[in-house]
């Protein structure tokens, strides 16, 4: 978990402070990320000390690959680093519900069986039933909380 006293710093300064608290040098980040890049067979995971210094001193945003490496080296979850860059994950479910895909059609879940939905989605009927149940629970909770609902 990210310490609360670094919440109001710029993203780069937050990362620098986290690295300093862990006692990790930019050279160590570079060495560890090199190992990750080699293991993944992808140079995008590599974080050079020049790149990290620039990130820590500017408002740059790392790629998802570099964020993954920083997460591994700093021993925190990627999800702990995302808020540093303005990503509020608690809003994800809200936007998934409020922003329906453009190329879908409403179906009556009571009349459509899980096998048919499974054929359309590629999911097993058991997974479909579980997802339908979860969606109904989410919508019911949103409705009870006074959120928007389809009418």
**Total beta strand runs:** 0
On the 0 to 100 scale, the average pLDDT is 82
> For the record, what CATH class of the largest domain applies?
Mainly Alpha
Structural class: mainly alpha
Main pleated-sheet profile: none
Q: Give me the strand/helix succession.
A: HHHHHHHH
Question: What are the defining features of this structure?
Answer:
about 150 residues; elongated; about 55% helix; 434 Repressor (Amino-terminal Domain); 8 helices; mainly alpha; 2 domains
What is the gist of this entry?
The protein is an all-alpha fold and 151 residues long. The chain has helices at 11-22, 26-40, 49-57, 64-74, 78-81, 92-98, 114-121, 125-144. It folds into 2 domains: 4-87, lambda repressor-like DNA-binding domains (434 Repressor (Amino-terminal Domain)), CATH 1.10.260; 90-144, no CATH class.
């Amino acid at each position: 978990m990210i310490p609360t006293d670094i919440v109001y710093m710029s993203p780069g300064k937050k990362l620098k402070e986290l690295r300093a608290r862990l006692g990790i040098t930019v050279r160590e980040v570079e060495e560890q990320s090199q190992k990750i890049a080699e293991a993944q067979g992808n140079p995008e995971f590599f974080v050079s000390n020049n790149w990290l210094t620039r990130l820590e001193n500017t408002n740059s945003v790392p790629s998802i690959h570099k964020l993954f490496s920083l997460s591994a080296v700093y021993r925190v979850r990627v999800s702990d680093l995302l808020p540093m860059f303005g990503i509020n994950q608690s809003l994800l479910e809200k936007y998934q519900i409020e922003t329906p895909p453009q190329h879908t059609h409403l179906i009556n879940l009571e009349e459509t069986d899980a096998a048919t939905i499974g054929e359309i989605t590629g999911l097993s009927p058991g997974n479909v039933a579980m997802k339908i149940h979860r969606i109904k629970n989410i919508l019911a909770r949103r409705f009870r909380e006074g959120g928007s609902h389809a009418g």
